[in-house]
Structures are given as structure tokens and as C-alpha cells.
Amino acid sequence: MRQNYLIGVDLGGTNTVFGIVDGEGNIIKEDSVKTQSFPRVEDFVEACAQCVEPLIEGVGGMEVIGGMGIGAPNANYYTGTIEEAPNLPWKGKVPLAKLLSERLHLDVVMTNDANAAAMGEMAYGAAKGMRNFVVITLGTGVGSGIVIDGKLVYGSDGFAGELGHMIVDRSAEARLCGCGRRGCLETYCSARGIVRTAQDFIDAGRMTLLSEVGELSSYEIYKAAKQGDEVALETFRITGETLGKACADITTFCSPEAYIFFGGPMRASEFIMPSIISSYNEQVMPIYRHRCKFLVSELMDKNAAVLGAAALKV
Amino acid sequence: MRQNYLIGVDLGGTNTVFGIVDGEGNIIKEDSVKTQSFPRVEDFVEACAQCVEPLIEGVGGMEVIGGMGIGAPNANYYTGTIEEAPNLPWKGKVPLAKLLSERLHLDVVMTNDANAAAMGEMAYGAAKGMRNFVVITLGTGVGSGIVIDGKLVYGSDGFAGELGHMIVDRSAEARLCGCGRRGCLETYCSARGIVRTAQDFIDAGRMTLLSEVGELSSYEIYKAAKQGDEVALETFRITGETLGKACADITTFCSPEAYIFFGGPMRASEFIMPSIISSYNEQVMPIYRHRCKFLVSELMDKNAAVLGAAALKV
After folding, report:
1. Is the Cβ–Cβ distance between B252 and A163 less than 8 Å?
2. Residue B256 contacts residue B132 (beta carbons within 8 Å)
3. For residue A175, what pLDDT is reported?
4. In terms of domains, do B14 and B99 share one?
């Protein structure tokens, strides 16, 4: 019998979501467990099994399942382990792929969220038919998944693709990053980095609708930009410029067919994208100019994390 | 009969060198033609054939030849063409791989010099047994060959791997590059860039043995460094620091097992390498620290360009 379905797992700090995904990229069954309820990883594995087994039965049993892919923070593809993930309850190196594989008698592969997002775009989204592209995820941090010649780049140790930690500002006053260094891309272009850019304008006394907002967010900045607020517009322009110059450097590495941007701030793509494109084409080496596509994820209205994880087994 | 030999071709602005390479990476026969003597590419192809055919006969004829690899400036692996190479006599896109393949009845592949160097290191040099590494060539410019999962990275269009044009200095006074932009790695770390660093110290009135040198070169700077000359030592220290910080960014991309440096300036590796390593480990994201090897090419005393080109067919 054909193995028509894949299981995608979005392992997050709050919920772990299981989805049964069909060949067209539809999530046809879904359920979840509370990640934090299981301080012992063995209990978590058992809870996962009890959650997913009814889903599997519901589509016809194990014979129709092609495997399980997991997107998880700090996951290492090569070892199938989660390593020192700050927002998960288990410490040290957790061999989760092996534990789940043994419990469920399934092939299980695991990688980080941004890599899963890249596989999701290739299987079901904006990168269909592409073999060389880079997905950049703008969230709490900036993540990336790099696909070269149809394959995810994992590097020598499984830790490749951390483009959020390229240095885009080498000046002494560059922003401090959570990784302990200064000037990382994510300090400017993550959702937090974007808020910080706007906050800096407010602190400098610039007139803006945003002064009246209780808690700044990229969505509040988007709403202000829609109303023509100069500070909001400039915030997105700077965000796009910074992404554009980072992409100009990334292109010297892998000359991708496209960059695909994913995440909450890309709801404001009408303001960010033109600035990414013009900054990139101004700053990239001449041989690469005007040859690259800049796209918004096509999975943002779907459960991209589950689809991306399932796509690891496509 | 086994195909025991490969043909490596180093196509340069002055000479085009042909070598017959055995399975252990020895060049057992070699000959060359003058590239500039053939303004018409058809005549060049005929001259190449007449040069290489006797070499082939000398090892037992076509049956023992596994193919031909060419390293050439501005060569595109995908199309087998040389495109607008400033130092070659033919203009436009030249389909050299096809022309030579048809004339010689051989499989012919072609790529740029730095990519060929990377394949050479993997087949015969410092990267033997590695599947993820980056070769950086320091010459007139700075070139690079990136190997991920055992394969050269060509990108969507064949133009990947131009790390000499990563921007390492975004300040207004950054050095102008031949590509028309400012702050490219090669403006600091090519042989010319290194000379320029030393010249800047001389122009600023620093005391140095180098003031008395007629024509500055990385070799003259090396000799001065050997004598403890402060300016020469500082020149190499700055070169290494700049390479180290570029590598720190490259690691976020592909997390290689090693960086391998090739080219004339690496004769001074005793002065450059410690600075590369300390700068890298200071500047790289903490998860990558002290995990990467920094090596000097093992092909610098051999004909690396011919070996690298042959290795394209390994």
C-alpha cells in the first residue's frame, strides 16, 4: 500500500502539535500536547505516542504513514538530539528522534524550525520547483534555512544556517545580541529588533503615532505605517535595508534563485519588501544584480511549522 | 580497461597548462600552449587538442582517460562557458567545454580556479576525507570554493562562492574594490590588499624596513616580518583579523569542518594564521567556538591548478 501520509510535529516551548499531512500539503488531522507538562522526557514521549496513535489509526494505520518529521528549537539533524534548548523542560542532549522512533516504530527526523520552514516552502509553498533558495524567518529571533541543490545545508556538525547571527554592524555602538556579540542581523530584523528601531526613534523625540501605543509590536508599527506615520515607515525601510545588505553577502556564498521571508513582521511586506529589493540590488556585487527573487512565504496562513516538519520526510 | 588518468587544465591569461594526473594525484605528463596566441577560440581549441593528444597517447590512449577538468577565470560550471573574462582573448560567452569535448571526444567539465582548488584539496590535499570545508585563495583577488556535503556549491546560476566580495567594512572610508563597491574582503586580504595595508602604514610615516623596498609585495613584507619589523607584523595581523571575522560570518552559513587557505601570502602563514584563529574564535557565535580547523593548502608546492582541475572529474 502507498504511504500517503506524513506526520509533521511542531515542538514548541508551550505546545507540541502533531499533524497528519497528505500528499498535497493539507493537514487532515491535528492534535497537541502541553510540552511543559512533562519534566521527564520519557513521559513526554509516551504522551506524544498516545496523542498521535489515534490520528494514525484515523487515516488507516501505520501502513499509510511515510514517516515523522519534527521541527524543534536547538534540534540537530545529524544526531537527532535537542541540545540545551532554553525554553524546553529537558536539559542536556535529549535523543528525541530515537526515543520517538523506538516508541512509534516510525522513521523520525528532526531539525530546527527555520530549516523545517525551508523544507515546507520547497514541498508546499513559495519555493516549489526551486533547488537553490534561502528562507529567512523573522520572529523572536531571525532564523534561516538554506537549500542548495535541493538539499538543506546542515554543515559539518548540524549547526549551519544561523544567518540571524551574521554581523551587519561592526561599529562600537552596534546592538548587543542575545548570543553575547554585537551587530547580529537579528538585533535589527527580528520582531524585537524592529520594535527597538521604532523605540529608538521615539526615545529620540521623533513625532509618531507610536508614542501613544502601550506595547509596541511589529503589528502596531504596521498599523501606523498604514496611516502614513513617518517613523513607522522609516522603521520598516531600515529593516528592509538591513535585510537587503545581509542578502547581498549571502548571495556571494550561494547565489540563490530566491530569498523567501517568513514570520509576523512580513505582514508588513508592502513596506519592508521594496526596501529589501532596492537595498539588495544597490549593494550586491554587479554580476548578481536583478537576478534574484524576493518572496513572502506562502505558508504564513497555514500551519507552516507542522507542514515544514512533515516536508522533512518528503 | 580502467580509466586510470584524468586531464587537468589550468587555463590562465598567459599559459594554458595540461597535465595528466594519476590516481594518487601525481602529474605524470605536462605541456602547455600560449593562451594569447589564439584570438579565435576555434584555433585555441585546435592548439589544445594538438598539445594534449600526444600526452594522452603517452599514457596509453583515450581508453585510460577518465575525463578532462578545466579551471578557468569566469568559468560557469552549469553552462560550460567562459563569460566576459577580462584577461582572456575571447569576448562574450565562449562554450569552451563543449568545443573541447567535441574535438577530443572526452567528457569535459569546467569551473573557476578557486572551485577547482577546493576539489583539488579534497582529492589530493588538506581536505582529504572532509565533506564540509571552505577554501579561500589569496592572490591578485580573493577567491573561494565552498564544499557542502562533499559537493561544490555552484548556486542557482553557477556563480556561487565569491566570498572575496563579502563586505567586511561598511564604513564610508572602506577601500574601493575592483567590483565597484567598497569594503570587500579582497580589498584587504588579497596580495594587493595586504600590500596596501603596509603602504598605508608607510604613508602614515611609520618606521619600517619596508620603506626601503622598491616594489612592495607580500613576500617583501614576509621577509621584514621575519626580521621582527613591527609594520610588517601588524600588516599580517590585520590581514588575519579580517580573514577571521569573515570566516566567523561564513560559519553561520555552512559551519564547515575547516577553512583552507591557499596562495602566495600564505607563505607567511606563521604570521597570518595565529591572527586568523584568534580573531575567528573571538568573533564567531559561541556555539561554533574552537570547533573549526584552520589549515594551509597542501598543494601549494605542487601544480595546484592542474590538480584541482583534474579533481573535478574524480
Report:
1. yes
2. yes
3. 97
4. yes
Dihedral sign for Cα B189, A163, A265, A187, please.
Answer: negative
A255 vs B contacts (CB less than 8 Å): 154-160, 162
Average pLDDT over residues B65-88: 92
DSSP string computed for A188-221: HHSHHHHHHHHHHHHHTT---GGGG-SS--HHHH
The C-alpha atoms of residue B42 and residue A128 are separated, in whole angstroms, by 41
CB contacts of A161 in chain B (<8 Å) are: 252-253
The amino acid that residue A120 corresponds to is G
A230-254 helix and A191-203 helix, angle to the nearest 10 degrees: 140
How far is the C-alpha of A285 from the C-alpha of B117, rounded, in Å?
22
**Which residue segment(s) compose the domain that A186 sits in?**
129-296
Q: Write b or e for each residue in B134-155: b if 16 or more Cβ atoms lie within 10 A of its Cβ, otherwise e.
A: bbbbbbebbbbbbbbbeebbbb
Q: Report in angstroms the alpha-carbon separations of B216 from B143, B229, B231, B236.
A: 22, 14, 13, 14
Residues B286 and B307 in one domain: no
Q: ipTM of this model?
A: 0.93
Residues of A in contact with B131 (CB under 8 A): 156
CA dist., res. A214 & res. A218, Å (int): 13
Q: How far apart are CA B189 and CA B169, in angstroms?
A: 12
Distances in Å between the Cα of A181 and the Cα atoms of A149, A175, A189 are: 32, 9, 16
Taking the C-alpha atoms of residue B20 and residue B33, their distance in angstroms, rounded to an integer, is: 15
Number of domains in chain B: 2
DSSP A184: B
DSSP E strands in chain A: the ranges are: 5-11, 15-21, 27-34, 65-71, 75-76, 81-83, 93-94, 108-111, 133-138, 142-148, 151-152, 258-262, 293-296
A179 touches chain B (CB under 8 A): yes
Query: Rounded to the nearest 5 degrees, what angle is found at the Cα of B158, between the Cα atoms of B246 and B174?
Result: 30
**Cα nearest neighbour of A252 on chain B:** B162
User: Which of B 262-301 lie inside 8 A of A, CB atoms?
Assistant: 283, 285-288, 291
Q: Do B131 and A156 touch (CB under 8 A)?
A: yes
What's the mean per-residue pLDDT of chain A? 95
pTM as predicted? 0.94
| B98 and B46 inside one domain | yes
Strand A142-148 to B15-21 pairing:
unpaired
Same domain assignment for residues A164 and A286: yes
Residues in chain A: 314
Q: What is the pLDDT of residues A152-193, one digit of tens each?
A: 999 999 999 999 999 999 999 999 999 999 999 999 999 999
Among all residues of chain A, which has the CA nearest to that of B291?
A: A157
**Does residue A277 form part of some domain?**
yes
The SS3 call for residue A178 is: coil
The answer to whether residue B124 sits within a structural domain is no
Q: What is the CATH number of the domain that holds B193?
A: 3.30.420.40
Return the C-alpha cell found at B25: 594525484
